[in-house]
Amino acid sequence: MKNIPELQHVEMLVLIVKHGSFRQAAKELNISPPTLTIAINNLEEKLGARLLNRSTRSLSLTAIGQEFLNDVTPVLNDYRRVIDN
Predict the structure, then answer these.
(1) Sign of dihedral through CA atoms 50, 26, 14, 85?
(2) So what family is this one in (predicted)?
(3) How big is the chain by its Cα radius of gyration, in Å?
(4) Of residues 44, 27, 26, 48, the one with CA closest to residue 35
(5) Ramachandran class of 18: left when φ > 0, alpha when ψ lies in -120 to 50, beta otherwise
(6) Whole-angstrom Cα distance, residue 21 to residue 47?
(7) Which residues are CB-neighbours of 12 under 8 A, at least 6 positions away?
(8) Per the domain annotation, does 57 fall within a domain?
C-alpha cells in the first residue's frame, strides 16, 4: 500500500496548476517557493509518480499528473463541501 499523501500537498498541487507557477501559488499560500517545491516533491514521492513537468520557463502536468488531478478534484470538492457545512 502506498503512503497516503497529505491533503494540504494535494491542494498545493491544485494551486500550482491554477496559477501555472510555483511562485504565484507560493505567494497565495504565504510560503516560500522552495517550501512548496519540497511539498510537491513529497507528494510525488508518496504517489510514486512524477506529476509535473518543470523547466525554468514552463510548467505542465504529466499524463499521470492530469489523471491524478482529474480523479482527486471531485474528492477535494466533496471534502470542502462537508467542511463548509
Answers:
(1) positive
(2) Belongs to the LysR transcriptional regulatory family.
(3) 13
(4) 26
(5) alpha
(6) 21
(7) 25, 29, 36, 39, 40, 43
(8) yes
Pairwise CA distance, residues 52 & 13, whole Å? 9
State the amino acid at position 80 in one-letter form: R
Segment 1-53, tens digit of pLDDT: 457 889 999 999 999 999 999 999 999 999 999 999 999 999 999 999 999 99
CATH of the domain at 14: 1.10.10.10
Q: Is 67 helix (H, G, I), strand (E, B) or coil?
A: helix
Q: What is the pTM of this model?
A: 0.89
Write down how long the chain is: 85
Please tell me the total count of domains within the chain: 1
Q: Rounded CA gap, 37 and 23, in Å?
A: 10
